[in-house]
Structure formats: structure tokens, C-alpha cells
Design goal:
This protein is an alpha+beta fold and 212 residues long. Helices cover 46% and strands 15% of the residues. The strands form two sheets. Strands 2-8-7-4-5-3 form a six-stranded mixed sheet. A two-stranded antiparallel ribbon has the order 1-6.
Amino acid sequence: MHRRSFNWAMAACALAIVAAPLLRATPAWSDGIDVNEVLHDPDAPVAGNPKGDVTVVAFLDYNCPFCKHAAPDLAKLVATDHGVRLVYKDWPILTPASTYGARMALASKYQGKYDAVHAALMAIPGRRIPEEQMRAAIAASGVDMDRLEADAKAHATDIDALLKRNLAEADALGLEGTPVFLIGPFKVAQALDYDGFKDAVAKARARAKTGG
């Protein structure tokens, strides 16, 4: 997990990928948080089943190596569990290039390419990825770059407003770094592998059945 510091600089790595046991899950919601705003922001990209019985909210940064490790397993979860609804919360807190990547990913949504651009950015190995390398990866994803640049400018106000809402939600939730996954009623502030995601979703479903 990458933690944010007071001046938003890159922080030290602390946690490794966690396998199936969900050791650090805590309650996701507390008083004063508008759950509906977090789960159903109309501008936030959504993948999976829009009517799924379990919602996963992913707070991510494109310069976070732990986010990148978890990304393929999260994508596999969405592809194999058709009851999962995934909400992406672009939360660029590590470097200025993280903000560039988030803005470009959100701009790609206007041509229906968010999933492709998101996957391309997450596939870049390492940390402190510069804007130039991000741009090359985005271009290779098949997105129309001329339209992307135009959409980034035309929708800049909406994109920046969404990023500000994501930041405010992260602060309200007490998040300290990336990645963080809200899985049903649970908050998991660490990277998970596929079995870990499956276990967390199963626990969320079990909790829903008991009304907890």
C-alpha cells in the first residue's frame, strides 16, 4: 500500500499482496458519510454488472505498484463473478503524473474507452511513471488520441470536479493511501489477489444475507 504524506509526495511501500484470508478488513461506513454518493456518483466509471449484488469501490493511483499488482485479479473477479459491480475512484495522490493519468483515463470515458485506458496505465510497471510514458501507453490502447485531447479540454471542469469529490470521499472515509477497496460493508486498505477478492465478496454476500 502506498500512503500519502502531507505534501502528497511518494511515500514508502508498506504492504505486500495479500492472499485469500481477509486479515485487515474493517467496516467501510461510518456516520457522516453519504453512502449513495460514494456508490452512485453518476460520473464515476463503472464496470461489471450495474445491478450486481455486491459493489466494489476501488480507490487507485496509476503510480501505485500495489494497485498495479491487484488490477489483473480485480479484472478477473469482474469477468468471472457476474454479480459484482465495480466503481472506479481515480485518486491521484502520489505524483503530478498520477493526476495526468487520472484525467486522461476519465476523459477516455467520453469515447467509451475507460476500461482500455485504465488497463493500459495499470500495466505500466514501476512507479513514478512520467506523463510521456503514460501517454504512449494510452495511445497504444487503441483510443482516439485527438478526441481524447479534445474531450480532456472540453470536460476539464467535470473531470476535475469528480477528482475533487473522490478526494473528499477518501478523506471522509479516513483513507491513508492506495489501494483501498470498499467491498460491500468492508474496507480493505491493502492489495488483494484473486482469491482475496473472492473471499471478500463471499463475506460481503454472507453479511448481506444475515442483514448485518
